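Q: Give me the 3D complex with zinc ion.
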Amino acid sequence: MELETVIGLEVHLQLSTETKAFCSCSTEFGAPANTHTCPVCLGLPGSLPVLNKRVFEYAIRAAISVNCLISKVVKFDRKNYFYPDLPKNYQISQFDMPLAAKGYLEILDERKKINIRRIHLEEDAGKLMHDEKKGISLVDFNRSGIPLLEIVSEPDINSPQEAYEYLTALKSLLQYLEISNCNMEEGSLRCDANVSVRVPGDALGSKVELKNMNSFKALKEALQFEATRQNRLFNNNEKILQETRLWDEDSKNTVLMRTKEEAQDYRYFPEPDLVPFVIDEALIERIRADLPELPGEKKERFIKEYNLPSYDASVLTKDKAVSLFFEECCKLYENPKTISNWIMSELLMHLNEQGITISGMKLKAKSLIELFKLIDSNIISGKIAKEVFHEMVITNKEPIEIVNSKGLRQIVDEDSIKDVIKKVLKENPNVVADYANGKKNSFIYLVGQVMKETKGKANPQKTNELLNGELERFLTPHP
Ligand code: ADP
Ligand code: MG
Ligand code: ZN
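A: Here is the predicted complex, encoded as structure tokens.
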């Protein structure tokens, strides 16, 4: 039986403020253990938290951008539990009055709306490091008190692919807002996924919460695995239990972590050390007015300003850095579509293969434009340009240097091309005969042979013209 997959995502985002949520310790990543701590984030008795204004502003920025209603009052609560990475034995969070609620995010090129249930602020815990050999665990409190924004979606997502699209769109938006570096590998973007299956139209099934996915790919794989597992249980008339499962990257499997019965009761109560306060409407309006151009708006502008197809504009604006690179190129070269084609194919493919971001890439906009100019002035063909491109991104050399040192200049001299054509025709009498008998593909084959002879350097247009002429002469009986 075809079941519907139902997914809701809980995203935790580390806000990239310079100092922590409730104290003035640095949030810098990778510092020596326990050097960024103070009585507040170590939970020492008598210390008092103070809300970082920047944390609040970043959260509002995110809330506005996903179309949320913002609460009139900011109130914090204590979420109580014991764990060695949590020195206070509670986490400051927001329980019954989240900072914002009822928003949405569009995915699949605006074809689907995923509703956002709530957005709230909380603080991160410390980090445990287990040394299995020595049988000890160490704790680093540098992360303790780092501001987190939790963004909880409604269960509106219906496939692992949609979950992937949602997270991609959310990450793109948050990067544009410059409130987090959204790095899943460093843990600044974390995602728990809730998944259930049901007969379409029925009430929601019991959900399984998935944790421990450390990449977008892992999220998709874990969801796929879990949806399949639940389908199998359902079709075997077995009960699907509400539980939390961990994704195991090595075995590509989810394993049981805890059942509903083992779920904790956090005994939330209002945080007495942080008095609720009313949000100043003027501040929200100021933040709204100061928002940067967001991916959706930028996409529309790219379509209008550069006359790009909607698809191109989508791809180019997904990653802010890519959109900036595109615009930098546009300042230097008058054909945006050419730039777009190259970025979408060669450039993004290269980044993908190397597993790097555009900011980590050596290629400069100016060098890419130099490459286009070599094509425009017939010094190299488009095909050879791709070869040069791959050399450029690896060696960081200028295109003309590569063309000269590798002897890649295009052959435009008609006599030279003609000589090659004559040779090819002589060596391929059968193909020529086929051509004479109307086999059109033979022409393409012969062009290919000329290109092979010239190592791809013959000017394609001239080759076509000259080959046509030569074939005609070749096939016209001489008196
Ligand atoms: P909990 O109280 O266990 O945290 P919530 O109701 O707060 O559960 O929901 C947490 C997340 O789980 C939300 O993203 C929500 O959309 C999602 N969710 C809730 N019910 C289901 C379900 N039956 N199937 C899939 N996801 C669900
Ligand atoms: Mg929850
Ligand atoms: Zn501190």
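A quick observation: Residues 292-406 form one domain.
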